[in-house]
Automatic annotation (TrEMBL):
Assigned keywords, A-Z: Copper, Copper transport, Ion transport, Membrane, Transmembrane, Transmembrane helix, Transport
Entry membrane topology: Multi-pass membrane protein
Ranges that cross the membrane: 20-41, 78-98, 104-123
GO cellular component: plasma membrane
Annotated compartments: Membrane
Organism: Rhynchospora breviuscula
Entry's family note: Belongs to the copper transporter (Ctr) (TC 1.A.56) family. SLC31A subfamily.
Any one Pfam family match given in the protein's UniProt record, by short name: Ctr
Protein name (record): Copper transport protein
Amino acid sequence: MTFYWGKNVTILFDFWRTNSWLSYSLSLLALFLASAFYQYMEDRRVRFKILAESKPASSEPSIETPLLYRRVIRGWSLARSVTAVMFTVNSAIGYMLMLAVMSFNGGVFIAIVVGLGVGYLVFRSGGDEVLVTIDNPCACA
């Protein structure tokens, strides 16, 4: 298989065929938006997971006794379930984008890669990951 360039492409399903430049352009726009949405959902999932795992200030280990802190194994909670559902949805979107790239159409490839890049720039490049690491008193974080 090699990349090809042209407006005639089948994307994911038999009914999603492009045979004109307008349908091809609209399909590329849809794939671009789906790629950016993938990055948005990944950002929301990570943020929700951080919020769900944050503990009240009283349960945090003190800096003097970090090794005496015993982590409590939590059971199934609503927040954990929601995080799992968000992960599932995001995985499904990611695999669908991968399968769309496997159409080997150059325009589809470019639309998805640029959509992922723009989505990362807009939704995930804020630098919040550094703040999470700095706030953690554990040296192994």
